[in-house]
Amino acid sequence: MAAVVETVDLHKSFRDGDVQIDVLRQVCFTLAAGESMAVTGASGSGKSTLLNILAGTLTPDSGEVYLTVAGQRLAWHSASTNQRTRTRRRHIGYVHQFFNLIPTLTVAENVRLPGRLNRRRDLDARALELLRQFGLEQRLHVFPETLSGGEQQRVAVARALLLQPALILADEPTGNLDQANSRQVADLLFAAAQASGSALVVATHSEQIAARAQHRLRMDA
Length: 221
Prior knowledge:
By secondary structure, the chain is of the alpha/beta class.
């Protein structure tokens, strides 16, 4: 299968006073459509940094990320800001640990949002179908503050999946959930990503979640 995302010798460091902290050191991997990878390691080992570089919201000190979307291979950090914005909006789904739902939008409006930003009103029906599949058909018109943590994360996953993105990035998607909700969210995330042929990268502390991925990248603190 063709690669969706490929990283070549990624390096990223930060400064803490006079001390340079190397967070990423020559990170290389390739992930194809339908494949999943767990990124594991202690807090501060660079898991979120890597996901933000893959999303194009953070620039590595050296190295490159190559994304293949819509039949085109893009050198991520050599691309223009407009190219990165368009690509991220159309082809990358991001699931955050703290849900990042918009509080003034209803459940249905939150899930429809990526479609609306891309002027894809034809995806409204898919948004409702995802919410039905995720057991949220009775919660369409309520606001996020009325939902449990597990429900909010299911909404966030549905939103990330709406466009059937080439790449899904999930940063500790079950970090704030109990065991039952963690299992349910993980079931939905892995199954939906495989069904849509998306490459999935999950940063996690959970051994149970990591064991479900086909590949693992262990980060050293």
